[in-house]
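Incident log entry.

Two folding requests arrived from the same account within the same minute. Monitoring flagged them as a possible duplicate submission, but the sequences differ. Recording both here for audit purposes.

Request one:
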Amino acid sequence: MSSRSIHVLVLVSVLYVAAQMLADITALRILSIAGLSISGGTLIYPITFTLRDLVHKVSSASVARLLIFASAGINLFMALLFWLVAELPADLTVGEQVEFGLVLAPVFRIAIASIIAEVVSELIDTEMYELWVRRFAQRWQWGRVLASNAVSVPVDSALFVVLAFWGVLPTAVMAGLFMSNILVKFAVTLVSIPGIYLVKEQRLEFEPG
């Protein structure tokens, strides 16, 4: 693997983890945009699928899977750290500082739902991408993004909505949230398709010893 490919892999991996973290933080707020209810994380989360595709393209499926689990661990640690900082006593000479907890202390059901949905959907995305590459090699690379996201995006949205809001929100509201999230995610998918051409195909090979 060339030095340039390693640099690209590191950069794309960092962007992937950063996007996952930002998506989990912003997922704590439900937005209303153009009459649609969507999770705030939906504004950035779909980009992670394309970033995962780029990691896969310059390395391998096993590296992509490792990155998915590592990112999930980082996001879980982040949620626990935010909770701990919000629960520890504040320095009252500065003020009560309740705003931190109100904004960042996670609702753990939503945080866990988000992490589970991310791991499952990203693993599915990995397998769909690998199947496409094995079938078509380097032809129609845009199809890798569409084919993998066509399966992983609905799975992600369904898991997140059900795990986060089942028994809390009415079924009709959950269905609306599911559909609006899919619409936004597929819109971002279409915009992100050219990104697959930003890096060259480079399968990661390990030297023995």
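Request two (distinct sequence, not a duplicate):
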Amino acid sequence: MTPEKLNEILQKGEGIEVEFKTSQFELNKNAFETICAFLNRRGGHLLLGIKNDGTVEGVLEDCVQDIVNNIITNANNPQKLSPPFYLSTQFIDYEGKKVIYVYVPESSQVHSTNGKIFDRNEDGDFDISRQTEQVTQLYLRKQATYSENRIYPYLRLSDFKSELFSRVRTLAKNERADHPWLDWTDEELLRSAGLFKHDHQTGKDGYTLAAVLLLGKDEVIQSVLPHHKTDAILRVENVDRYDDRDDIRTNLIESYDRLMAFVRKHLPDKFYQEGEQRISLRDRIFREVIGNLLIHREFANAFPAKFIIEKASVVAENWNRPHDGGIIDPANFSPYPKNPVIAKFFKEIGRVDELGSGVSNTAAFILPELNRNLLRRIFSERLFL
């Protein structure tokens, strides 16, 4: 956020998507009530260092880092925010004063803080924990908005690829030697990953679309989503059609493997050394690109995801509900989770890092090799929608 944008928000004042907190010395005790309400409603902008009337007092410079650390730590603490959620923060210098900006996107999950569920309206944050009807409507809205939460009550454990469970446990172990998935049954793993939910409309329980896409058998995926596929295309010599193609119609874990294999088959791996160790710059970059392509996608739409290698460029396309338009600035952007349950699963098995790190990581690898204009072209909306 720029000082100009901040000034525009100050002129409009607080509302359903804007909240001011003073937080001169420490984070306000009710700040996570607002964060929870934003996550549950439609997202919003939390600005610390500002009074309710829009007067900018600023956060004491010596306290800024402690407040930011407090936000990040508690956002990842299920005892404080359940389920946990990745939040990004930004410092803004405004008329010589420090303001902390926290962008809170709408979440696909229903969140609680300190055991209470909060919702948001024009007048502020409201505890709806005991309002059964409002909580039910909140769950229904999330399910309708985020297709990954769609529930299939007649799916059974036998509809999933049994060999994939062994594989994801191995991948999770590589990330964390004592990962709890190692000791859990397949059913416990699915439930812990948020892949089994209650349908508040029908009253039935069931596995979700995210579960099917991550671990389902191919025939089950095609039964649930007949249009589901990812198209990997090489178009260098035969630009009217293609030189090579992989029509991928399988789960997201094996889709990732096949896309990476396609990259290794058709793209060179320039020598690159980090310290005393050689690393694959190609794999580092396209790990992030392919992770974004698979995770941040509106699966209910029939438009296929595409990964196209051309003579002078690589293009990744998928269909989604964009939160904003224009070119992404790697140095100043806020991530928007399209399928956070799927993203979290990929993080557990080491296929992606924290939400939003893909752009910054890729920028860090590309910057020494490319000029800034080309970098901006790479991070266009065409690649990371």
